[in-house]
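Protocol step 4 of 5: obtain the predicted structure for the target chain.
Materials: sequence only (see below). No template structures provided, no constraints applied. The aim of this step is simply to have a reference model before the mutagenesis design in step 5. Sequence pasted as it appears in the construct record:
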Amino acid sequence: MHSAIEIAIVGLARGQAIINELEVNPRHGCKVAAVCDADDGLSIALGNRLNARTYSTLGQVLADPAPVVGLFTGAAGRAALLRQIIRAGKDVMTTQPCEIDA
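Step 4 output (structure tokens):
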């Protein structure tokens, strides 16, 4: 059996649904290793529940050893966030590969 891929979830308002899916169905092969949101209270609460590292900035997540970043923020500014993640050498997963500000 393969070990689970560690993922850092960024944007918990939308990312909670992904976290719930990963918890319910471990066959996805991912383990939530870190969570990040501008709302520190939400990050801490979810981090404690999941036994995951907690962050409030993308920069902190990019320094995390988790090899994959799940980006689940709003569409505004998404391209810049994706660019940062990719340039940091991280794999990235997102549900909305769009950008509001062309």
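Step 4 remarks: The longest strand covers residues 30-36. The first helix runs from residue 12 to 24.
Proceed to step 5.
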